[in-house]
Amino acid sequence: MSRPYLLMPRVLARTALAALAVLAALAAACTDDEAAPEPATTVAPATQTQPSPTAEATTPPTETPTPSPSPTREPRVWPEASSAPIGDAEALELMDTLTDLEAGEEAWRLALARIVHADDDRFAAVLIELLWARDTRILRDGLDYLEYYDALKDITDADISPNRHYWIRWYGESDLEPPPGFTGWKGRLLSIIDEQFGEFLSDEHASAIRVEEILWGGVLVDSIPPLEFPDMLDPEDVDYLEPDEAVFGIAINGEAHAYPLRILDWHEMANIEVGGVPISLAYCTLCGAAIAYDDRGPDGVTYNFGTSGFLYRSNKLMYDRNTRTLWNQFTGEPVLGELVGKLDLEGNPLRLNLLPVVLSTYSDWLARHPDTTVLDINTGYARLYHPGAAYGHYFSEPDTMFPVWLRSDDLYLKQYVYGLRMGGARKAYPVDVLAEERVVNDVFNDQPIVLVTEQTIDTFGISRVGPVLYPSGGEVRAFERGERRFYPGPEDGTVVDATGAEWTVTEDALVGPNGERLERISGHLAFWFGWYAFFPETELYAGSR
To answer: 38, 132 in Cβ contact below 8 A?
Structure first.
């Protein structure tokens, strides 16, 4: 029988958490050192500087500072306790004691003492969670924050400041594993916020990722509401968009749709149908990646996705409403739940198929697709749907909102790249380099390809702190090229081959003068930190010069 947890009164909890959800939405652009849900767990900003939206980065960023050591204090004297190894059953009992309402301070302190005297570093993940729970007041009662911190230092011998974000990064770099039962324990702890969190995090579920790295994003399940087959408008009925505003464009089977970022920023997911194909346009604002997935899974199942409220390496975890399995938005793979380990119809690990999506301006998309439809601004939700309102401050700042331990200083954290994946190969192309070269002939995974970049797109808007100007990415499309090489054409939307023959850039293919087609290759934009966090083995395009 499970023990009662250190719950806030349920009504107060729901009220407080609803307020947190609203605050998180309004303040969603906070950087890592001012995240709304965790006001006391700040991370010192990186010393690197962000280039202006239109400027080319000419020097590499400086390295993010090493986590600072802890302030000098006298070592804590723990109550006497056994130093014998802790078995799995006792480990679960200790975890539950630390979040047991009826246990009281003496029992909580003795549980910590037992862990410290046993020098059991498996509990590092448990103590990091308790730092967060006490700091955010999710656990209204419990020991002082510094007691958990001192225990964490004692079992890890790590001299790091009390800042939880530093500890998350430290843990990510370690090879530690938590005690058995940690997933369910964490689920019970998080169910204080939303009971559905406990359903996601269950010991019964297989996991393809470290559950220790799953963070609460500050919102409840689907409280960043996905758009479910939203109404679309004909262009003549659209009166809220400026010509140079950024939109995500999708065109399939002769049907074109435009989804303005000013709206998608608030929803981060659109379950839609384009050209008869069910699609999830999954948009992780934190990592700058809008990815179009074919909902017709390669296992023969058609999926529908929602927003879990969880993050993994600052990337949103979505969930399918069929099985309530958590999926990695960036990789399109199930990571925690019933579908982990499932194979597709060809016997390969289950992974959603990518579909082409492109960033463009509304005027340019409309010029290419005069019959396009456009997302209706009347979504049924009360939001400030003007540019920059949701994430403008975050987009204009150089830092991440949540800690990411697996990172590379080859580019700025939030420098845009265009990412391609084929088989097991991955390659990232800095958008500013693509824009400078316009047409890039490359070989990726032994396949000749060409990337055509029309423009980079900046957004001017009003964030919660005032006017902001920030890059939104670039209009990039990738295609097969066979044995040809291509060069910029005489007009936008065209390229020429070595013979001077003009080819037209379409959403499906490069189309030659005789109707020859070179097919589109699906890729997407992302912040560099987001791409690298999941594909550290990636190639990085350095330019043709």
So the answer is: yes
